Amino acid sequence: MKKSLYEVGNWSPTDCILSLGCGAAWWEIKQTMAQEAGELLLLDTNKDVLNWPDLDEAIAYFEEQYGKKATTPASIFHADAGQIPLSDETADQIWLLNSLHELDNLEAVLAEIDRVLKTDGCVIVEEILSGGVHEGCGKRLFTRSEIVGLFASHDLHVVYEGSKDEEADYIKFGR
Ligand SMILES: C[S@@+](CC[C@H](N)C(=O)[O-])C[C@H]1O[C@@H](n2cnc3c(N)ncnc32)[C@H](O)[C@@H]1O
């Protein structure tokens, strides 16, 4: 059965959400416009895709679409997901939406997720779990068991998994 990101994450209006490898963050802005969060922290290495002019444009677009003002404060971090410039136990939810397969330094990334995630927090991964090659970026995609094993090595275990759409799946991890 398909579920929306909100049905999987069920974040509260006070939750701090950190999205790693968020790209232009249109999806994150749309999600938090539909369901307010306490804070949205957007992290990507690429300043050409993640920047304030484009983010302001996305916010304005969704404000018009939803007919209301954006209330979730957003921040931008141009940083490597393996060196997150945030304090320990900052995030209630960490999202890796179609980005995990692009991250080179997975051990460092997992150690940082473990550090920055609150004890009762969750991680949501969206990926195509084919084990093949991603058409867009040419990087190798994971299989489900590779991702589950990766997170298990940091004591993060599957609490939900299911389809996002015809292609991609969500896997939600908790401690
Ligand atoms: C396939 S894109 C996904 C973007 C967005 N989440 C989406 O679903 O459209 C992967 C993103 O990961 C970013 N990225 C790659 N390596 C990274 C790293 N080490 N740390 C942070 N971001 C990284 C890229 O710049 C790119 O924007």
3D structure, described in words:
This is Methyltransferase domain-containing protein. Residues 57-124 form the Methyltransferase type domain. GO terms for molecular function: methyltransferase activity. Keywords: Methyltransferase, Transferase. A seven-stranded mixed sheet has the order 3-2-1-4-5-7-6. 36% of the residues are buried. It has 175 residues and is α/β, with parallel strands linked by helices. The longest helix has 15 residues, at 52-66. The protein has helices at residues 5-9, 26-34, 52-66, 106-116, 144-152; strands at 16-20, 39-44, 74-78, 91-97, 117-127, 157-163, 169-174. The protein starts with a helix and ends with a strand. It has one domain: Rossmann fold (3-Layer(aba) Sandwich). The chain binds S-adenosylmethionine (SAM).
Features:
alpha/beta, seven-stranded mixed β-sheet, 28% helix, binds S-adenosylmethionine, methyltransferase, SAM-dependent_MTases_sf, Methyltransferase domain-containing protein, transferase
| Cα end-to-end separation | 24 Å
* C-alpha-based Rg, rounded: 15 Å
Backbone shape: globular
Q: How would you characterize the largest beta sheet? A: 7 strands, mixed
Question: CATH fold name, please?
Answer: Rossmann fold
The CATH homologous superfamily is called: Vaccinia Virus protein VP39
H/E series? HEHEHEEHEHEE
Poorly predicted runs of 5 or more residues: none
Report the β-strand fraction as a percent range: 25-35%
Q: What value does the average pLDDT take?
A: 97
Number of strands: 7
**Small molecules in complex:** S-adenosylmethionine
Which architecture would the CATH scheme give at its second level?
Answer: 3-Layer(aba) Sandwich
CATH class: Alpha Beta
Give the helix level as a range of percent.
25-40%
The helix-and-strand class reads: alpha/beta
Total separate domains? 1
